[in-house]
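To: structure subgroup
Subject: Chain for Friday's discussion

All,

I'm putting the inputs and outputs inline so they're searchable in the archive.
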Amino acid sequence: MKKKFIGLGLALAMLLCVAGCNITTPATVGSIGGVEIPAGIYLLAQYNAYSTAASKADLATGETANDVSAVLKASVTGNIGDEEVTTDGADYISRLTLRTIEYYAAVETKFDELGATLEDAATSEAAQNADSMWESNGDVYEANGISKDTLEKYLLNAQKAQACLELIYGENGQQPVTQEEYETFLQEDCRYIDTVYLPMMNTSTYSFASSEQAAAIDGIADECLTFLKTSAPASTDSTGAYQAMYQAAYEYLPQVMEILGSTDFDKTQASYYVGSQLYTPSALASYDDGNGGNIL
């Protein structure tokens, strides 16, 4: 079954990121553990896998993330599950796609085994998020054979995963996590971090940065890091530190958008690129710079 999915992945990979074409697919592409995998879910998993591979691909000068053949042949290093792999783009896409649909099937299976149900709030959230994603990128999804119903189904699967987590490890679950275990994990393994996000995609055309643009943005990121190192630590309270993040966003985001050629960016939107989040060890690992460093 894995070979079947990988073979289909290679066959469909060339269709990714091609605007203006209509893709006809069967209702399902196979099954895993008795769970039928809808073709739309497969295409969405592959679309996301391609986007990830493209962002991590070692592309030659002049090649971009939109050059499908270049991405498929390029060397890609990234995490698939808990494993860091280095392989060519085609293999990375196939393996990441397969892991995604295996996870999808596992969630569906466990959800049924637990006899779980979703609350109205969960289904409503999935529908609203699907509407938002479709409004923002509907044309791109549709060109890749992905419907809004598929987005909603994928988001419902995420809600089911959360429900399974609660039923197994929640306060009244089968294997509840104690308050002491929870606090120890938060204090010893997690980090609450303020971030400034510098995009690598043109928000007007949804095209990824070229290698030259990426290099220029990396230089701006270094300047932003230097600014935060000298400004944020001087603040003695979290409010002051967060203000430094906003200041950095207003200073450096317009420069990034100018490099990318984004025409719909207004400086007042810079605040949307500042956030705070609790990062788990797995999330922190995805930001590893290879030298033991993590998030800026």
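Points worth raising on Friday:
The beta strands are 28-32, 35-38, 57-58, 75-80, 83-88, 191-196, 274-279.
The mean pLDDT is 83.

D.
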